[in-house]
Amino acid sequence: MFLLLCLPLVLATPLNPTLEGYNLELVDGILKDVQFRDKLIDELDLSGLGILRLEKNAFDNVPSLKSLNLANNSLESLPQFMFSNLTNLEYLSLAQNNLTSLENLFIRLEKLQVLNISCNPIIHLRRGHLFGLTKSTSILTEGNVLWSISTGTFTNSFLKDDEELKYLEKVKAEEYIEQPNDGIEKEIEKATDSNVLKDFAPSTKSSIKKGQKLKLCIPNNILLSIEPLEDNKQVANGCLEIPVNEKERSVSLRGLGIKGFHEKWYQLQYLPLVSLDLANNEITEITKELLNDLPEDLIYVNLMGNRIRGIWNQVIENKYLKILNLRNNLIDKVEDDAFAKTNLTTLFLNGNQLENLSFASSLPDTLTELILAANQISAIPDAAFSNLPRLVYLNLANNKIKKLQNNVFKGLDSLQVLIITKNSLTDIERQAFSDLKQLTTLYLHRNSLAELEKGTFSELESLKDLNLAWNKLGKITADTFADLPQTLDFLHIDFNEINSLETASFVNVPRFTLSLTGNKISSIPKGTFDLPTLRDLHLSNNTLTTIDGDSYEGLPQLKRLWLNENQINEIPKGSCKNLGSLSILDISKNPLQTLQNGALYGLSLVRGNFLYIYNNQLKELQGGVFEDI
């Protein structure tokens, strides 16, 4: 797009060093000097001459110039203070060059009326870059690739007043608060053997010797034995040599076509292994031979990606096993008490074919993480989790759950993270979460919630992060979030169908981040926000047509306001009167063509504050845009 907009207006012509009224000293594309021949003239047109570089003193002999045109050359940079002696200059065109910076070029140009920097690859107008220009200057920017404009771009970058120094000290001392990583949903599922097991105490047995090998025998795909391989010994026909991961104290038997196990197959009792990987084999059933004779050090078994169809009771008896990964099998049935004779802390059952949770009430009370995502579960029975007082993390994402009834999570006294994303939720009864006093993270995004009953979240007294994005909420009233817990830090309501907000829609919470991206909000009434500690407000991808200064009352600590991808075509004076605390205002991807004098008055001009404006249609920036005019 930049190239299309900036095709040369004047074709390069053969150089004539003596042009009408003046002489040029132009050597190998470097302009060294300009002198008048007969009388003083006030216009100098050097466009399209293929100039590559200007020497700093090139214009010292033409101080009376009022108009200087350097458009359509090949300038990549200019010496600082290049034009400072041209104090009568009223028009300066640097359009259609390859300039990337404008640092210290316009000092003493108080009479300049028009500065044309169109069609240059300038990405950032940094602090002080336009210092010297006045409110009477129009900066033409058509065909620009600007990404950001410092709010101090018109200020003297060499000076720091007391107010700015105090502000910088405050910024240094202030802890930067940011939304937690959205990857929490996958954090446990993608954990490696080493970090899943890092909290377990090391074995008292001798360490694994460097280069330890194992002998694995699997005749007819039935695992007969796995045992240490003595030094300098060769494995027999039909057996394999397997390495040991000494650092992670693990063995991988992944993808070897194993279908079953002989009794006493595991002969590694004297090696302090903690993890056994049997993923991606052909195992169809967990038998007594598979898990029950494993030693006390072996606490993690990975059976992911096999063909197991059911988990039966009276089969698994292993009080040492802590982590069992059954992800991506074909399990459609787990019998009651199937895990009763274990002390599991983490159980992966995601990516199976489970349709109900009737077995959940008989899971061992030692569980702290339970992952049931990507099954076919359509409902949660009453008291399903009543015997899991230690459970901290519960993931039910990507199922078919339609309703959460009152007290459905009764018994989960320690639960901190609950994920029910990508389900079919349409109804949450008011007391559904009433038992979750320790819950800090609740993810309900990508469901079909059209309304929320008042008080739905009121008893979540420890909640910090609530995500309701990608639902069907249509209107936010003063009652919708009136009873949110005062602990709430982050609230996401992105990509719903919200078309209106009411006064007092958000009071006191969330404390740090409110995200309303991707809705249909066209206006924001005065008093919508009363959020004294909010830092980030996301309103991108809505239908706002202007910045209404009254809309942002009640946000005294706001640091970042995201208004990109709206329909903003005008920013009148007074728009930023309540935005003096901002460090970032993002108005990128809007149809705005002009930033007039006074439009951004109210934004702080101290160092480190920016206007983001990438993918813009800006054609003109006036020199008093940040002033009270």
Point out poorly predicted stretches.
1-5, 7-18, 191-195
Q: Biggest sheet, open or closed, and with what strands and sense?
A: 18 strands, mixed
Shape: elongated
Summed up, the helix count is 5
Strand residue percentage: 15-25%
Find the structural class using helix and strand composition.
mainly beta
- Rg, Cα atoms, Å: 34 Å
Helix content: under 10%
What's the number of extended β-strand segments? 42
Average pLDDT number:
91
Q: Could you give the distance between the termini? A: 34 Å
Keywords: Leucine-rich repeat, Repeat, Signal
Organism: Bombus terrestris
Protein name: Leucine-rich repeat-containing protein 15
Pfam families: LRR_4, LRR_5, LRR_8
How would you characterize the overall build of this protein?
- With 629 residues, this protein is mainly beta.
- It is 4% helix and 20% strand.
- It contains five helices and 42 strands.
- It has an 18-stranded mixed sheet, with no helix packed on it.
- Strand 18, helix 5 and strand 19 (300-302) form a beta-alpha-beta unit.
- It is elongated.
- Residues 1-5, 7-18 and 191-195 have low confidence and may be disordered.
